[in-house]
Design goal:
Layout lengths: L11 H6 L13 H9 L11 H12 L3 H14 L3 H18 L2 H14 L7 H14 L3 H13 L7 H11 L3 H17 L7 H12 L3 H14 L3 H14 L4 H13 L6 H13 L3 H13 L8 H14 L2 H10 L1 H5 L1 H13 L3 H13 L4 H14 L3 H9 L6 H12 L13
Length: 427
């Protein structure tokens, strides 16, 4: 009896996806904003009584004298009488917060500037983004959405904006809105020739898992493979597919074969389940080759009592099977029987004779065999034989239980191996 590795690591997916979390940046307003505001001073005029305090704030800020700036702000609070006065108080509270690295004070100044209605239009993108960023750090997701939507509308190009906004919608339970935003951001970045942040995939995937929207989980995981085509990510995706395959051993075997083809068999239990399924399917050549590959990659220990026992028994079953396959495959009785033709194609694949398997799968189809099964395996043989165009044409015809696997094979064929994901961008 084979062992299901997936039942041994029931929490593996949640743990793996938990690795990529949004990091709230310790935001600080750039000094260039200070210069821009100074240029606009003539259009936001302080009252006569507030002018001395403003001058002191300007001098202290230019001198980077936090104590003097704090004193000037305190003085100004007693003389501010107009909306313009209060705007400049807020602005210099922001500057003081920057100098002191005090995010609470920065946030207070930003909010007062935004809420005044006097902030220059070309500063609103930055002000709203940083205010939203602080709100996200405080877990005030409703305010985060309000500020970041305003920043987006004002033309903010901050790389973390979409991630923070998406996650805020998810945290508020607005899953559909968060996922729609994530998908739009993903496609916009791809259209611009950029690789989307992995968080735009990971956070929605986790939300969909929590909601038990399993098909949508796999939809987004399939999209993710276009940009994060590494063995670890393939393993996460195919592990999820295995979890959903239930008791269908043939689907499980096909899933494990794709895991092997993508270099995603990274732990011993995968090999143990694969070996058990291939043994039950009477594919000794595939079992022996699999265990040999696992040892070559050092995933299977060189001395492994259980897998060594399986390999020895299957090697004995091979006998002269491989040497007689060519003649057997050409027999009319083989080609006219869909199950026999397909099974012979499976044996050819097990021995690595992918091109030789192609006509056998075509014969199985021509003889009226299971269209979904043999079309899918025809595509796999074509892919492994290097016929990408033929494989994609075959996969495009697959429907039913193997449609997702066909989609993933097509992603594999379309995607070059990507570099390791970059660290999350912070602002």
């Amino acid at each position: 009896m084979f062992t299901r590795f997936r039942s041994m690591t029931a929490t593996a997916m949640a743990a793996a996806l938990g690795c990529a979390l949004v990091a709230t940046a310790p935001a600080a307003m750039a000094q260039k904003n200070k210069k821009e505001e100074a240029k606009k001073g003539s259009s936001i005029n302080p009252s006569k009584g507030f002018t001395p305090a403003v001058k002191k704030m300007i001098d202290a800020s230019n001198a980077k004298d936090a104590a003097a700036l704090e004193a000037a702000i305190a003085e100004g609070q007693g003389t501010a009488s107009t909306a313009e006065d209060r705007y400049w108080l807020a602005y210099y509270e922001l500057q003081l917060g920057i100098q002191k690295k005090d995010q609470v004070l920065q946030g207070k100044g930003l909010d007062a500037m935004i809420d005044s209605g006097l902030a220059p239009a070309d500063g609103l993108a930055a002000y709203n983004f940083y205010s939203g960023n602080f709100a996200y750090g405080d877990k005030n997701y409703a305010k985060t959405v309000q500020r970041l939507e305003a920043a987006k509308a004002a033309g903010s190009a901050e790389p973390q904006l979409d991630v923070l906004l998406m996650d805020s919608y998810l945290q508020l339970g607005q899953v559909d809105q968060g996922i729609a935003l994530a998908k739009a951001a993903i496609e916009a970045r791809r259209a611009a020739g950029q690789r989307p942040s992995d968080e735009l995939y990971v956070r929605p995937i986790r939300a969909l898992q929590t909601a038990k929207r399993n098909e949508e989980v796999l939809d987004l995981m399939t999209l993710r493979m276009r940009d994060y085509n590494q063995p670890e990510v393939w393993r996460q995706t195919l592990f999820t597919l295995l979890q959903q395959s239930g008791e269908n051993k043939e689907i499980a075997l096909d899933t494990l074969r794709l895991m092997r083809a993508t270099g995603a068999m990274l732990q011993r239990p995968e090999y143990l389940e694969y070996a058990g399924l291939a043994t039950e399917a009477a594919l000794p050549g595939e079992v022996v080759a699999l265990i040999k590959a696992g040892k070559a990659s050092n995933v299977i220990p060189q001395a492994d009592a259980r897998l060594d026992e399986i390999a020895k028994a299957q090697a004995e079953r091979i006998g002269d099977e491989e040497s007689t396959l060519t003649a057997y495959a050409a027999r009319p009785q083989t080609l006219s029987n869909p199950r026999v033709a397909g099974a012979t194609g499976d044996a050819m694949v097990g021995y690595g004779r992918y091109a030789d398997a192609v006509p056998l799968y075509k014969a199985a189809l021509a003889a009226g065999g299971d269209k979904e099964l043999w079309t899918y395996r025809l595509g796999v043989a074509q892919a492994l034989a290097g016929d990408a165009a033929g494989a994609k044409a075959s996969f495009a015809e697959v429907s039913g239980a193997r449609k997702r696997l066909a989609q993933l094979w097509t992603v594999k064929l379309d995607s070059a191996v990507a570099p390791a994901p970059a660290a999350a961008t912070t602002s």
